Amino acid sequence: MIAGVIAVGAPTLATAQDTAATPAAATPEGTEVDELVVTGSRIRRNEFNSISPVQVITSEGSTLAGLVSGSEILQGASVSAGSTQINSQFTGFVVNGGGGVNTVSLRGLGDQRTLVLLNGRRLPPAGTQGAVAAVDLNILPDAIVERYEILKDGASSIYGSDAVAGVVNVITRNKLDGGRLEASGNFGGGGDGGNEYTFSGAYGRVLDKGRFQISGQYYEQKALKYGDRKDLMCQEQYSFDPTTGARNDWIDVDTGTYKCTGPSGALFNYIPVYSSSGAFYGSRARISTDGPAYPANPPIVAASNADPRLPGYRFAPLNDRDTINALERNADFISPTKRYTLYADGQYDLNFGELYGEFLGHQRKSQQTNLQQLFPIIAPEAPCDVNPFNCPGASFANTAQTIPGTGLYAPQALALTPYKYTQDVTVFRGVVGLRGKFGENLGYFNGWTWDGYASFSKNRGKYSLTGINSQKFLDGIGGDWAESDFTPIVGRHINLFSDEVLRTGNLTADDYAYLKLTDKGVTDYEQTIAEFTVSGDLFKLPAGPVSGAFGVSYRHDKLDDKPGTDLTTQNFYNLATASRTKGSDTVKEAYGELEAPILKALPAIESLTVNLSGRVSDYDSYGTNYTYKAGLNWQITPAYRLRSSYGTSFRAPALFELNLGDQGGYLSQASVDPCIRYAPPEGGGVSNPTIAKNCAAQGIPGDYGGNNPSAFIVTGGGKDLKPEKSKAFSAGFIWTPDFADINIAIDYYEIEVNDQVTSNGAAVIGQCYAAADFPTNPFCSLFTRDLDPDSSTYLGITDIDGSFRNIVSQTSRGIDLTARYNRDIGPGKLTLDAQFSYTLEDSQELFPGSTDDFNGVIGEPKVVGNTQLRYRWNDFTIAWSTQFVGHQSNYDYQFGTNLSPPSNYTTPQGSAFVAKNHAEAMWYHGLSVRYEADKWEGIVGVTNLFNEAPPKVSPALQDRGNFTYGRVGSYAFATQYDYIGRQVFVNLTHRF
Q1: Which residues of the chain have a pLDDT value below 50?
Q2: d(CA 972, CA 954)
Q3: How confident is the model at residue 789, as a pLDDT?
Q4: What pLDDT, on the 0 to 100 scale, is given for residue 671?
């Protein structure tokens, strides 16, 4: 719930260059405002109207909404909330910047295409592992932030590379004269899971010839573990009868309610069940020591269901017993984080100029504990205590894979074990600069300003991974038969079919201690910047002065990620691996901007202003590029204004995109292969006939179950990458009537990124099989399917190339609505702020003629918005804050209709079902009250007032293979939703 003072159609005001900046919305009527540098322009002015659309979020409004972290504020803004944001929920994912990182992506175009500034100057990338490129919002000095300014269109001609989707400018306080202590906390109802705590202090002085201030902050986010919320622990099938609409999930025989499986979605202590032809049926039988001998469905095991390995054990369907592993309760859904931030800045008048400086120091400690599945196919030659099929008297017909040509059985073991990532990130940034004005009697240059500064930033990210030692594990089982021939067991025997493992689904404590492996790495990123700018009036036209700003810039970036030996040698079983990433680049730039008033005081033209800007960039790695932008600001009458801009932007591939050492990881066959059970005998399967046709063309049986080891995906630096170039257009209408204190702005935007650098990941497989030109489609060359009938991995997808490459384009189009209304009511003042974004298109063209529009799918809502209604009366303020998340649906993407399709899917038991692949629109509400005294103030409030739960959805249907959504419990996994639930928040501030 993000709301704040919004300068509708007005410039966001001053960057750090300005010592007397005042937000336009807070400026008293009739007050003369000093010339300011507006975000989106380098020209100083004393107008309130900007050509480009800008949104301002104040710390006051955010605090009243219960937000304490800059990452929450920026990720929840309407301009960013319409797309997935990388935050602390991504505990089980490999993300750019490493675990625990928080970034912002405007317009859904990616965090590398959003430029983040602090007081008008570029912030450095931060994080761990090789893929460091974006600014980690964790480093922001929240304790001293006054407001956030968001420029909502491209601005590379003004700010350089990365400003493709827009610019975030974080503005700190600059008039602190005295001290302040602040403490806040957000407290949930289920223990301390997900709670946030912040303690900060700041002190500053305004002197005769300068000022200084210093602040420090401690922030802690408690882990939200799956076991902290019962709904996070329960994945239901969440299916419905196509005729009656009633739920037709499995019913748990113990509880009589819908069957839950564990949140990780991983299977454990099961034996794969195969048909007589060797095809895998979607369900698995569980070993059970009590209860009736349930017949298997389909009936493919012996009628007695007896298990000769362990007397008294029986096969039973999944709904017979608990399918939640104890380890899952301790897995992290939200990463625990601790942050320490120190910030200081100051300035001093040297008479000929003003010396200024900034210092930022930051440390983040975070970790993510999750689960992995061990599922090797045990070698048939292994001894009895490793392969129970070799035990005397064993008879396991149809319960395991028969090795072609041998008649031997290779059982597949299934067990869960934890793995953990940790991060210790330190960032230091220093800025020193000198600014001033030209002489008083220099003709046209009278009053010109100049500003030169240099900055140096260093990120050092230490990280570690704890998992299973692959070498010891394979030595202990004789090798994974799916990948190699049997080798004699070396050292300790690992028995994955012991009574303890089958009962718990976990390794024994002794085996885990023996196999546990921890390796460490370190990531260094350095950035050096020097920049010099001059600005002022050039000459006068009848309508006013022509202003200009000109500058030069130098930037050098250097990245070096050094993973440990076990990471680089792929010695972690079924976990991501990495190689060293090292590279550097230098860019030298020159830029200029002109603003000219063309007409003034004419009928229907109160004023007409044109803004032009351009930049030339020379990269050591890519050569020279040019960008430009043109804008028009037409004040029709005092109440009506039109604005429009068109420009180009540019982004050189990030260091990691070019130099990333191969990162390896594993993905299950079920998560990548659209040919799994595309046409099983009992009916159902994928709905896309092109996929079914192409799968059949490769000889894949319709009931192929994907009974193969996970696919290995490699992501590496791109070869011969080209820089991205983009075009951005915006047009807006602003209404500011004189009969009421109301401001309304409606802006249309369109951004197209060409030659976009991206990693397609496993999406290349779905694109291949959905292509009309299969198998010659370019996607089909980016993965390998084993089509050798004599191979142990026959029909499985073995390798995927997910490396960075240039795709054709990505396009984002939409409409923004921003409104602000003030009115005196009774003894106080009422203020309403509202910001909504409606996305019209969010498409990617990966190869010519292959375009997907993801607009409106789960995780990418078409409509999002924030409002805040405040009423201030003397020392009291009451605020009602809301966040709107629009309806989301995968039906149109999958089937070409927004209606739920007729069922052609079946459960593993053969009954028809309808999957719910849409999420309802929802509102979150918050209420808070603030009391202000001379020296202190206090805020008490509630977020998610009505304890709204995220929408429940069925498992994603992989009809096209290119886009699927995730679930947490039975909820849709999307960063727009609140999984913590209702929280009380308290904020106390003392000034001295």
Answers
A1: 1-36, 45-48, 273-315, 395-405, 902-904, 906-910, 959-961
A2: 9
A3: 85
A4: 73
User: CA separation (Å) from 796 to 518, 522, 576, 699?
Assistant: 31, 35, 20, 12
Report CA 55 to chain centroid distance, whole Å. 21
pLDDT of residue 844: 87
The CB-side HSE value for 36 (13 A sphere, CA atoms) comes to 26
In a domain, 867, yes or no: yes
Q: What is the DSSP string of 593-659?
A: EEEEEEEEEETTEEEEEEEEEEEEEEETTTEEEEEEEEEEEEEEETTEEEEEEEEEEEEPPPHHHHH
The DSSP secondary-structure symbol of 478 reads T
Range of the domain at 216: 24-227+334-369+423-463+522-658+721-759+806-991
pLDDT digits (tens, 9 = 90+) for 789-804: 877 678 889 888 888 8
Q: Say if CB 96 and CB 656 are below 8 A apart.
A: yes
> Coil, strand, or helix at residue 504?
helix
> Does residue 216 fall inside a structural domain?
yes
Q: Is position 962 within any domain?
A: yes
**What CATH code is carried by the domain that includes residue 343?**
2.40.170.20
The token pair that represents 603 in the structure block: 């009928």
Is 937:75 a contact under the CB 8 Å cutoff? Answer: no
Number of structural domains (the chain) is: 1
- Residue 322 in any domain: the answer is no
Say what the pLDDT of residue 43 is.
65
Q: What is the pLDDT of residue 557?
A: 96
Q: What is the DSSP letter of 652?
A: P
Which tens digit of pLDDT belongs to each residue from 877-890? 999 999 999 999 88
Q: Tokens 């440390």 appear where? A: 363
Cβ-in-10-Å burial (0-12, 13-18, 19+) of 29 comes to exposed
Instruction: Kindly state the helix (H) or strand (E) to which residue 982 belongs, with its residue range.
Output: none
Contact 154, 645 (CB under 8 A): no
* Alpha-helical runs (H) found in 523-612: 565-568
Cα gap 657→622, rounded to integer Å:
13
Coil, helix or strand at residue 698:
coil
Please give the pLDDT value at position 741: 92
Q: Which two tokens stand for residue 628?
A: 């430009």
**pLDDT for the residue numbered 289:** 44
Amino acid at 547: S
**What's the one-letter identity of residue 140?**
L
CA dist 322 → 227, 405, 413, 505, 665 (Å): 15, 38, 19, 11, 30
Q: How high is the pLDDT of residue 276?
A: 37
- Give the strand pairing for 724-735 and 711-715: unpaired
